[in-house]
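Problem 12. The chain below contains 272 residues. Write out its predicted structure in token notation.
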Amino acid sequence: MPEGPEMYRVARRISRTLGDAPLVEVWFAFDHLKGWSGRLEAQRLATVRTLGKALLLEFADGVTIYTHNQLYGRWLFSPADRRPDTGRQLRLALSSGERSALLYSASEIDVLAPGSVNEHPFIRRAGLDILSSGANVAEVAAWISRPEFARRQLGHLLLDQSFLAGVGNYLRSEILFIAGLDPTRRPMDLVPTEQAKLAEAARTMMWRSAETGGITNDPQRVRQLKAAGWRRRDYRHFVFSREGQACFLCNGEITRQTVSGRRLYACARCQR
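Solution.
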């Protein structure tokens, strides 16, 4: 499943693809949504933003299309007069006069009337989206210190979309590594400097991943390893999916464990 940074890149591409031109096509595969097409066609798409792993496509009149890719959904892009050659099922089509943004295979699509966006179950419980909100380190730290999160272990908490929306499995491992925190630590256990490190790590990893297409490792190290012929999967992350390999920072061994039913990678030396 794509994580927040991947969806943020998709949102930016939808905006670039459709621009501010009136849409000539707004097509839904699901019968209960088809009635919205007539209202939305000829409107401009005002904004496209993420809320964690979901997309919110907001029209000029306040109507919002909510989509969530889940495991299989995928956005594809094409000229308006052609469709991509794919065996996937088209669920949503948005077309300007020249280009189309097409959502395939997704099962979660809703249309939200003006004023009802915050009533949607996913939106109502979603936490801070670092990317779309533009939150700075102090604002992220303030969110992390909220009392409802205080007693939960970070290894579990970071996968909860009501905490930091858009953080998934690879970002969880990378954030904890950069912050130097063991996954069993809780927000209530952290001193202010550790809270600040966690906030900075979360913000840095989210933005770096969004800007690089999913690469979280140090940019200078990435350039060096690419020049040396390393494969992307070996230089992409600090610790994620690197079990048994040497830590880039201390040369210790990267270990793997299961937390919240999903694999988590860490360096015992760096994350005491």
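Discussion. Residues 192-212 form the longest helix (21 residues). Students who got a different answer should revisit the alignment rule from Section 12.3.
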